[in-house]
Amino acid sequence: MLHFALVGNPNSGKTTLFNSLTGSTARVGNWAGVTVEKTTGKYKKLEEEIEIIDLPGIYSLSPYTPEEIVSRNFIIDEKPDCVINIVDATNLERNLYLTTQLLEMDVPVVIALNMSDAVKKQGKEINIETLSKKLNVPIVEISALKNSGLTELMEVALEASKNPRKGQLIFDNEEISHLISDIKIALSLSNISNPLFHAVKLAELDKIEVQSHQDLLPIVDEYKASHKDNIYGDDYETLITAARYKYISKNFSGVIVQKEKTESTTKSDKIDKVFTHKFWGIPIFLVIIFLIFHFTFGNDLFYMGKMGLKIDNEIAVNYFTGMRYSGEAIFGIPSLGVWLHNWLTCGTESLIDLVRLGFTNIGMESSWITGLICDGVLTGLSSVIGFIPQILLLFAFISILEDSGYMARIAFVLDKTFRNIGLSGKAFIPMITGFGCSVPAIMATRTLQDEREKNRTIRLITCFSCGAKAPIWTLLASVATIALGLGDLFIFTIYLGGILIAILCSLFMKALSKDKKVPPLIMELPAYRLPQIKNVGTRVWHKLKHYLIEAGTVIAISLVIIWGLQSFGWDSAGNFGYIPEYIEGSFLAYIGKGITYVFYPLGWTIGEDGWKYMVSAITGLVAKENVVGTMASLGLMKDTISLSTAGIYAFASFNLLTLPCMATIATAKSEQSTKQFIITLLYWFFISYFMSGYIYWVGTLTINIWWLGLIAILSTIAVIVITLFLLNRKTKRNIALAK
Amino acid sequence: MPIVFAELNKEVKIVKLLVDEDTRKHLQNLGIFVGATIKVISSTFGNLILAIKESRLAINKDVAAKILVA
């Protein structure tokens, strides 16, 4: 089978093209670094099947971040039959910089000129023939988004793959060309493939290259000694970079012809004047985030209830909002998320009632089969499925942020704030992705080139409540409503509290590390565009499928196990058997109480129901949706949760900060070294243990004796500030001593 | 002078990059190399948005202070 690799700059449309060619639905977004690993798929419309490989975006073949190395190694080691180089026509010169490097390799290359329609819209014309002649490779105009030109591209690529191609040097500097051809001859003698490419990289003294060809270094050194450039000295890397750009702008700046005069500031620049504004930038971001949560979790969308407007419990209102429960007054109009949640829960609960009625009618009311199906599986699943609309809605909003190009701006706007806590703004992209799901969030940390920053960001990911944890907050909010007045306010405090904890932990991580240098922020800002319904839709659809499959497999199985452990045991007389009414004697109660001993210091684990909360939290290790599922089957529902306000916050913070689900843990393991991974696991365990305990005891104290609580809180702040100060001073002195 | 002090929306030429080697490499790949012409289009307390040809690049203050332009 033939193998074609897609290579191009970040955010040039490789994955969109890949999806169109192979019918896959790999994740796309409007920021650099969405694809962090190679993905493969098959193109089946030609006489022979072709494997297409989508590689992470790269700016050059001298990689900077780890995911760029994946791309470079693939082209060199796997030797694809053809490289399809995606060139973003709206940013031609920068994209051609990579092309000049690709053309140095001994591999057939076809250029797919993407987004040329956007260039034409700007009133410009692209002279493809000139470009093709100068580069000496075929060029096909495509639009990855609109699916045009793809058949032609594949035909041209197939044709090109049949003729081997020798690398060619494309840049404007005669002297250095001599050096490169000398090295190339030396390399060819030792039968190395891609001699020209390796020769250029060696002249640049590329780190990876120097390691593998130590023997040829004397040639470079000797040449350098005799040929000093008067501007760049012996910095040949800069010399070659400049030579490439010089060639590009000399030969290709005429390829795009400006027909009509347009303004020099683009639409994107104008939007940026608002979104990245000195003072409004951060407030705008906060408002956007608040609106997202409000539309997803808000019980009272227009604050009608807050203004004292009470809608009575009329049938029409009940139907409209999906609140079928009678006797409960409705305050205001709920948000779309709550609305969908109400309706879905209404449906699934009626279904369970129906199933139970069916069993009752055939006289199996108290049989264990009815218990297994209704109480064990369906009740748990219903509470899990009921939250799917809200999770998806949150996910859709985050997808829109990603697809519009705003994500990269957030990183820029927050960079200054982040720098104070020892992270660069770039670290915020994984974090905000973490509001959707922690797995892609941890994968996204690959765009951080600094190992320390990457490890810190992975550890902090749990602070950013993922979609699957949202059901826990919604359930608790319905309890907390009584204590706090507004349900979505409770949820907002959880999200905000998570961020505050992340900041605090990050400050400590910074203070404890020896090197306090924050990596620089250098990031491309893609042009804004309207979010593509197709992109957002596919991602939401995928998430939905993922949740349904998960609900039907892992969650259903763990619910059955939990049900089994909770329904069998010894009754009050000590006889073993099926004991649905006497949970205290069940296996689960014995196991749960045993485990809970370790967690007694947390406070909310004390009491009759304490072990049930603990068991629920532990089942979250399988998947976070399990927590509400288990709570439901253990009888901890809206009206039966007996925790105090402090207890609710402590329980919530434990679930937020503790070890995430298996899938996330596995992703963290593959992203970190074994030592760092173990530190991560320990960190997750201890931070949740201490935070939760602290919140419970200090919270309880504050509620009962407010002045004593206040003293406790103030002294904690004092201890934190002093510790941070001492830690920072100590490392500063160490650095001074080392000097 | 460091690019932090460059006038907004005015083309300037890069004369020196004082950053460490890895960062310099990355900047060069993105089109910021000695001899290139760029433009500052926005400045937020020293953090800059640069226009290099058609692309827009965000850099933070520490990097910006080490890019010398004329």
Q: Can you walk through the features of this model?
A:
The complex is a heterodimer of chains A (739) and B (70). By secondary structure, chain A is of the alpha/beta class. In chain A, 60% of the residues lie in helices and 7% in strands. Chain A contains 31 helices and eleven strands. Chain A has a six-stranded mixed beta sheet, with helices on both faces. Chain A has a two-stranded antiparallel ribbon with strand order 6-8. A two-stranded antiparallel ribbon of chain A has the order 10-11. In chain A, helix 16 (368-385) packs antiparallel against helix 24 (533-567) and helix 16 packs antiparallel against helix 27 (626-633). Chain A starts with a strand and ends with a helix. The mean pLDDT of chain A is 85. Chain B is of the alpha+beta class and 70 residues long. Chain B has two helices and five strands, in the order βαβββαβ. Chain B has helices spanning 21-29, 61-64, and strands at 11-17, 37-44, 47-52, 55-59, 67-69. Chain B has a five-stranded antiparallel beta sheet. In chain B, strand 3 and strand 4 (55-59) form a beta hairpin. The mean pLDDT of chain B is 90. Classes of the chains: A alpha/beta (739), B alpha+beta (70). Chains A and B meet through helix 3, helix 11, helix 12, helix 18 and strand 9 of A and helix 1, strand 2, strand 3, strand 4 and helix 2 of B. Strand 9 of chain A pairs antiparallel with strand 4 (55-59) of chain B.
Could you list some keywords that capture this structure?
heterodimer; A: 739 residues; alpha/beta; 6-stranded mixed sheet; two-stranded antiparallel sheet; 11 strands; 7% strand; globular; B: 70 residues; alpha+beta; 5-stranded antiparallel sheet; 2 helices
